[in-house]
Amino acid sequence: MKIVAIGGGTGLSTLLRGLKEKVGNQIFKLSAIVTVADSGGSTGRLRKAYTMPAPGDIRNCIAALSESEEIIKALFQYRFSKGECDGHAFGNLLLVALTDITGSFLQGVSIASQILRTKGEIIPSTAENVELWARFEDGKEIMGEEEITKYGKESLSKIERVWIEPKEARAPDEAIQRLSEADMIVFGPGSLYTSVLPNLLVEDIKKTIQESNALKVFVVNAMTQPGETTGYTAFDHLERFLTISGLSQVNAVIVNTRMPSDRILRNYLENSQEPVIPDVSKIARAGVKVYTGDLIGEKEDFVRHDPQRLAELLLSLLPVHESLS
């Protein structure tokens, strides 16, 4: 089985940690297509200084797929806390250095993946220095992933549409090749507007996915995100994903049905986040297969999809899809 996972942030890296355990067994080839539109923190500072794609989400995915010793992974994720390097992650700096040395962001990512011995291929959705834009229902247009989320929180206005500039940014040949040969393409989990959708805004990625016969699966987030998906149900996530991406349909949707513990739920509610309502009947009436389950874990007071449970469910879908085709 050849799987391509698309997204960014902690959602994609969580999924990859589960899928990498199946590489060499149920998975023949695993690829991750990762957004490079991040604009916050260390990534944002390095983008401005070096005029390059965002390295942060790429770094997290390399670490997630790494088979290196724990000390090497810890070094790659190490974040400086003093001096001129304050706030920078070592892996981000390494990716910048490798890009500068080789003259190619794609080559820099490839070498970093070799150093960390990844059990899969990490490919940026574009090698160009793209900026993410969003238009809100109040008419305001905001540039930058971090700024978009911040404005959404402060204004309480909903995102109407998102796009990237330059709009003609192209995907690497490797991304198109992996999508063309994929048996399964997975979208999410992750921030809908700033981690998952930016990849689909690269026109040739969207076109290749639309033409693909692969099983296309959308993983709905477990919790809403202030500034992006406040008040969204599972169906709302799917509907907005299809509308913004321009895809005609997906084959399956995965929805978590377990609620967090009361203690953790209270913490989330204080930050204007709540569990995504699993309105699965509405998704089913739209003609999409829905798969549900207890898919979340709770670590360090955060709600995340459990990597192993999510991976197991995903891998169970392809035989079902093929039998129905």
Question: Topology of this structure?
Answer:
Layout: E1 2-7, H1 9-19, E2 29-34, H2 41-50, H3 56-65, H4 70-77, H5 90-102, H6 105-116, E3 121-124, E4 131-136, E5 141-143, H7 145-155, E6 159-165, H8 173-181, E7 184-187, H9 192-200, H10 203-211, E8 215-219, H11 234-245, E9 252-256, H12 262-270, H13 280-285, E10 289-293, E11 296-299, E12 302-305, H14 307-324
Parallel strand pairs: 1-2, 1-7, 2-3, 7-8, 8-9, 9-10
Antiparallel strand pairs: 4-5, 4-6, 11-12
Structure overview:
By secondary structure, this protein is an alpha/beta fold. It is built from 14 helices and twelve strands. It has a seven-stranded parallel beta sheet with strand order 3-2-1-7-8-9-10, sandwiched between helices. It has a three-stranded antiparallel beta sheet with strand order 5-4-6, covered by helices on one side. Strand 11 and strand 12 form a beta hairpin. The longest helix has 18 residues. The protein is globular, with a radius of gyration of 19 Å. 47% of the residues are buried.
